[in-house]
């Protein structure tokens, strides 16, 4: 089986966007929780960073779920169910526990000590502070849940997901899928708005309709070789729609929806036209970008040199450790009076290089080599 380097290269992009996404939240805010946030008083920069965060959210985690399911299906072709379960428990379960029990307390202690200036001993910290957080590792927890449900459940119930043979959906069928995700997401957000998390896991259920659907799509796509069949013409059509939604509809919806005067809460959930419009915007942009990226990377980025191989091999480790690196560097600049926008610009390349360089060393350690 020829390795699809373009998917590895997409993982580099997605991982980099995760890092920059959390850096943008650090200096612009946004729905959901992050460890350390500074206010941004520049309205133009704040709008740009908010659009960057919203665009990322529309596709990057859903695409991670799709790619994960794509390779899960291929693993099930080569390995027994027991082998797959053991592999996933090791590769997902161990980093999950490591983050929750080691990295998360360290990050929370740094936050309490240097952001809030509370001089607590280690014992006092564990006794008085909420140190048990999932942070971005929620994705690993959700992926482990999705994976075990699919693999183990498939042994007792013949899930249609495991049996489906189908041709690549037409643009009309994809659009119908977009509308389905939009409608269900809108209904979920009436009670569970964007930004509300399921504690302690950190699951934003407002986005989970897309995640579940794209996980299923990834599995079926692998079984039926869909990623190789996406046409350049269709990808360009979807990307044209993306640009219209980004450059025209995003400012239009938010302007006429009252975002400038009343804030964006009304877009995040509730039985409002603004919430439905944002749900539709999110899915058209997200699905369109996913289709466009698969097509473009397959045609233009289906090879790797030594640097790309190292970056793709380190991507998962970056995901695990980037929170600690980002928070440390952000706290180091907290007293520098240059404005939040300047800090974002300065830290963006430093954080990315640091995350991949440090993670490349970590994954080569004997104890991590078979896990990461």
Word description of this protein:
- This protein is mainly alpha-helical and 372 residues long.
- It has a domain at 1-30 and 304-372.
- The chain has 15 helices and no strands.
- The chain has helices spanning 5-28, 43-78, 81-115, 122-128, 138-156, 160-163, 171-191, 208-224, 232-256, 259-262, 265-268, 273-300, 306-332, 340-363, 366-369.
- Helix 1 (5-28) packs parallel to helix 13 (306-332).
- The radius of gyration is 21 Å and the shape is globular.
- 39% of the residues are buried.
- The model has no long low-confidence stretch (mean pLDDT 91).
Head-to-tail CA distance between termini: 23 Å
Order of H and E elements: HHHHHHHHHHHHHHH
**Mean pLDDT, all residues:** 91
Extended strand count: 0
Number of helices: 15
Instruction: Based on Cα principal axes, name the global outline.
Output: globular
Helix content range of the residues, please?
Answer: over 70%
What gyration radius follows from the Cα positions, in whole Å? Answer: 21 Å
- How much strand content do the residues show? under 5%
Largest sheet at a glance? Answer: none
Oligomer kind: single chain
Uncertain spans, ≥5 residues at pLDDT below 50?
none
Topology of helices and strands:
Layout: H1 5-28, H2 43-78, H3 81-115, H4 122-128, H5 138-156, H6 160-163, H7 171-191, H8 208-224, H9 232-256, H10 259-262, H11 265-268, H12 273-300, H13 306-332, H14 340-363, H15 366-369
Helix pairs in contact: 1-2, 1-12, 1-13, 1-14, 2-5, 2-8, 2-12, 3-5, 3-13, 7-12, 9-12, 13-14
